[in-house]
Amino acid sequence: MPEGRIEAALRDATDTERAVVGPGALGVVAEVFGQAFGQRPAAVVADATTWRVAGERVQRALAAAGRATETPYRFPPDSFVQATYGNVERLTRALAGHEAVPVAVGSGSLNDLVKRAASEVGRPYLSVATAASMDGYTAFGAAITRGGYKQTMSCPAPRALVADLDVLAGAPADMTASGYGDLLGKVTAGADWLVADALGVEPVDARIWELVQGPLREAIGRPGDLAAGDPGALERLVEGLVMSGLAMQAHASSRPASGAEHQFSHLWEMEGLGHDRRPPLSHGFKVGVGSLAVAALYERLLDRDLAALDVAALRRAWPAREEAEAAVRAAHTTPGLAEAAVAETTAKWVDADALGRRLTLLAGRWPALRDRLRSQLVPADRLRELLAAAGCPTRPSELGLTAAAFRATYARARMIRRRYTVLDLAAETGLLGELVDELFAPGAIWADQTPGSPP
Ligand SMILES: [Zn+2]
């Protein structure tokens, strides 16, 4: 049963002590609160929708159990609660007026707001999930828009999580599909970790790897059933998302659950793609298209013989640090983001000598690495079928991206995170430009995304 896997993963998690996932789980919310926080009072935080679907019941259950509670904090109705720092400040001010433990009743943005605000007032919190929309419930860190762009702010994961599958089953279909897109991203995220491991950049921790990759194939295997409302398929999805969050806690890094597909998504998020939509374009939808983009790139790269590279020529052509920085500044003009991208790129920059050593190492390890990547990855055509069956977008235009903006993402996304991914491997082997050209050529996966073609 999934509780078994999650229970085992909780032993390695640093912040989260308990996660109850199952039908009717709201029935034990007061008990879970008591186990996690003893006699402390509770303060439910919700928006209009999450109050209706679960918040009111949580409030009643806590009160019925004799728990002292503060007046619930409810974000204003008729608006989508945005994960902005302004909202963090509003919530922090409200929390500062008492000493209660916040209970976040909601999904991505609301959970992130409470996660950060709770951290700012130095308190733990309880998360009550209302949609299977992303893996952030059990992850540390919050994606908050501040100073004009979206950034990841540090804060611990919740001390406990309650995910009632009956509540999650009633969430809008797009939210479940979004969770599927986020989970599907673990396929390419895993591949990127294998690359980083093989090149001596970041070793794979086999136990953490298993937390994410172990349940993954089963969890992504039935997207049609998931879209049709099958409870078993939903349970597998939620389990996969919760396990991913716990793996990130245990590893003290998002590496186990996030690779180049998330760099695509993070870049689009930092630049506000789809934030003006109602509801805003979801994280998982962006990760899904990012996964497809990255899987397609991997397919082309795996056809190359990286054991036969001209290392001396690649060393000669390698840009100096100042050139690399200039390229980042030319590619990123959003305030704040440009500086952040320079810092991230600089953190992983290597000089020509180090590049030469890395490429020599790659040559020796390529045959084995290629085999491992082929068994880890899912063909891009298959990924597209899975995404479509789950109800996720599969085309950049569905996200509101122009063909040119999408194509540019292959080079730009690499610059915004220090994490080593296939984008770095492709760039360091001198192949990124030509591989991307191939992806947009007639007959290839993005042929209809060539700039100038109809959306
Ligand atoms: Zn994600």
- Small-molecule binders: zinc ion
What integer value in Å does the Rg equal?
A: 22 Å
Instruction: Please report the distance between the alpha carbons of the first and last residues.
Output: 45 Å
Structural class: alpha/beta
Mean pLDDT: 95
Order of helices and strands: HEHEHEHEHEEEEHHHHHHHHHHHHHHHHH
Query: Count the strands?
Result: 8
Unreliable segments of 5+ consecutive residues: none
Main sheet attributes: strand count, strand direction, barrel closure: 6 strands, parallel
Number of helices: 22
Query: What is the strand arrangement across the widest sheet?
Result: 1-8-5-4-2-3
The proportion of strand residues reads: 5-15%
Report the principal-axis shape.
globular
Brief summary of the model shown:
This protein is of the alpha/beta class and 455 residues long. The protein has helices at 2-10, 29-37, 48-64, 85-96, 108-120, 165-169, 173-184, 186-198, 206-213, 216-220, 223-227, 231-251, 260-270, 283-302, 311-317, 321-331, 337-348, 352-376, 380-390, 403-412, 422-428, 432-439; strands at 18-22, 42-46, 73-74, 101-106, 126-129, 142-146, 149-153, 160-164.
